[in-house]
Design a protein that fits this description.
Chain lengths: 412, 412
């Protein structure tokens, strides 16, 4: 049982987290939000008040914070009395924030794997490079640390666990499919931080197949899916966090991640990548200035948070899980459909931020009421999925299933 | 009658100029080459000696020079006793070098219009913005200044004048077509300085039609040409220097410039331009660094001079000139074919640099022997084209013509 939440970060996902925390502040207690640029926190809090999102009267305060500074994070946790930290800052700050939680005993959550500025897609399993190295430390300190609890990774890990627990006797493959069938109306934009978005796709595509890590290139393996609501969509095998934890829990299953890309995105990506403009390594201009090309690309692209007002259409994210049931082959597709415009109307963010920002708030509520306050480090598939998915049904991300018995909503 | 040449610049075109000057140092006298980075000058001189290019024993010296510093340029002109300056540095230094020539009495040549770092494609006629403002000063100082004496602008201006003088009674249109049908084998590269290359195409496409300036967008107007040697090629109406001087001499004619582009170039260009990566205006990264996107694009692209060893194929550049002859409609195509590999074997540069670098050396020789030492500012079409084209026939850029009488070499 814990209370009082510190949100770290002030981007599009943090905006969703802030609104959802406010909508549930009767459970979560005092709310705090911290970012390098405190004015961005102020704006988020203002938007929370504008929508009268606070369920009950309570604290919501903004703080300036360098989240790479563990001592500063720990000091803020102590000062605010926060027992739950929702880290939705850049993936470069995971380890420093986790360290502060271990130091103070606060529960930790994030939504993406730790990265170092100058490295891309390191040796699989990725979690083994940073987070899992602190597993023993969390256990020793009795610290709850839930890794990757956004939508993907996060909810899709819970879907896989649910399929394995409830719908199949054995699991042969887990294919996670992430389709954004929405339209932002810009010539080109990424849906979240371009730097993080592109970094996902510039390295080796790791999948877990036939009991071993397999390597492919981005856009090398494509598949057309026919999905509920969004219809036929082309998706490509992509490196992604959840492959690296699910393969650890289900080593006998093939685990793959598929992301939908339009030809236009692929073309822009291919041009930028082949020219070297997605590199995280500095280049020197003719004038002698050292510049990281990817940071310049980020600077010229639209701010993803600016897309929200005009974003239309829906996302479909889910897991195709195959295996056997009662000795016969079986397959389920467990999924969620979200709507960009609905997300904007509710919390002022587009659907991609919404799907990533709601789940950590559900997790925080489960830590607050003790259900998920496990006192150790866990990936989402290590935890009982039903209370999590049940809560998500209530707070904006309902789960559906499509299998031999039809396409229907799931309740828990 | 003038002698001793100072070459300013040390890029691919300067390499060609250096070799061609060396091959004709009996006429041109002492040779000097100056650039901000003196090591690049040393490399060029070494390549001249490697090919034993000096026709007679003589001076060839390298100098460090900031060509934006008029006083420094003037001092070097005086120190070296150079009476001829071939400016093949960046187009940002034209006016400071011209000023130094006016001060010292040296003859001036360049191959591209002056540009300021922070402006693109200003009000037509472009020459009116900078160079022509010093026309009276040149005349007063009795300084020969030949503007734009590369291939295009340069040789194509002489072709237009030749067509008007010798093959037509009236001129209705001049369409200059520049096709590079060569292949450099890289995924993408520009053939000369990417910064200058892209700047040519990011602004308004000005053409002179129906007695007035017309504006189009890049890649808006395309035309397929069927040309000698290189065959059918798609070209697009493009803004270019020579349109701005030829329209002044032949205001009754339509004057257009067409450049060949493959779909791949257009795609890369379109992506970079639409994203804002070709902007010459600084942007600020999330980390607060001020960066000019175009300079970063330049930094990641191949150095054009690195293309030369593997470059194959040919260029075709020429003028379609239409009008009347003896009261009947008539058309001529006056053109040159150059070969990338031949250029590399002779001077160590690819064909694009070769076609740009040979003409100013021909012009320098005509200044040295007095023929073009006119003691005033001139665009190439203001000068007698025959000695120029005759000399080019001898030193590497032969002229051909295709008209009702067939396709044949021209002699002068």
């Amino acid at each position: 049982m814990k209370k009082n939440c510190l949100i770290i970060g002030a981007g599009g996902v943090a905006q969703v987290v802030a609104h959802k925390c406010a909508q549930n502040n009767d459970v979560l207690g005092d709310l705090h939000i911290a970012s390098r640029t405190v004015s961005k926190c102020d704006e988020i809090i203002a938007s929370v008040h504008e929508k009268s999102a606070m369920k009950v009267d309570g604290v919501f305060k903004a703080h300036a914070l360098d989240a790479t500074d563990t001592a500063a994070v720990a000091a803020l946790i102590r000062e605010t009395g926060c027992e739950i930290v929702i880290n939705v800052g850049s993936p470069f700050v995971n380890m420093s924030v986790l360290e502060a939680c271990i130091e103070t005993g606060a529960a930790y959550m994030d939504t993406a794997i730790h990265e170092e500025q100058d490295k891309i897609c390191e040796t699989p399993p990725w979690y083994g490079n940073y987070e899992w190295k602190r597993r023993d430390a969390c256990k020793y300190a009795n610290v709850t640390a839930i890794l990757g609890v956004g939508f993907d990774p996060g909810v899709v890990n819970a879907y896989a666990r649910l399929a394995a627990d409830e719908y199949l006797d054995s699991v042969e493959s887990i294919d996670i499919v992430d389709i954004n069938a929405g339209s932002h109306g810009k010539w080109f934009s990424t849906n979240f931080d371009p730097e993080i978005n592109f970094r996902e796709f510039t390295g080796t595509v790791y999948s877990w197949q036939n009991g071993a890590w397999q390597s492919n290139k981005m856009f090398e393996v494509g598949h057309e899916y026919d999905l509920p609501v969004v219809g036929k969509q082309k998706a490509y095998m992509t490196g992604h966090d959840e492959v690296h934890s699910l393969s650890n829990r289900y080593p006998e299953a093939d685990v793959r991640f598929w992301m939908g890309f339009g030809d236009h995105y692929i073309n822009v990506f291919t041009v930028l990548k082949n020219l070297g403009l997605l590199s995280e390594q500095p280049v020197k201009t003719a004038e002698g200035q050292e510049v990281i090309p990817l940071k310049v690309v980020k600077a010229v692209l639209p701010d993803p948070s600016s897309l929200a007002p005009d974003y239309t259409g829906k996302t479909c994210i889910g897991d195709f899980v195959k295996g056997t049931k009662d000795g016969k082959p079986a397959e389920v597709f467990i999924y969620n459909i979200s709507d960009h415009k609905d997300a904007y109307n509710e919390v002022g963010s587009q659907g991609i931020s919404y799907t990533a920002g709601v789940p950590p708030v559900a997790a925080a509520m489960l830590i607050a009421n003790g259900t998920w306050d496990v006192g150790e480090m866990a990936n989402v598939e290590d935890l009982d999925p039903k209370p999590f998915l049940g809560l998500l049904n209530e707070i904006g991300l309902p789960t559906r299933i499509k299998d031999a018995d039809g396409d229907r909503a799931l309740t828990f």
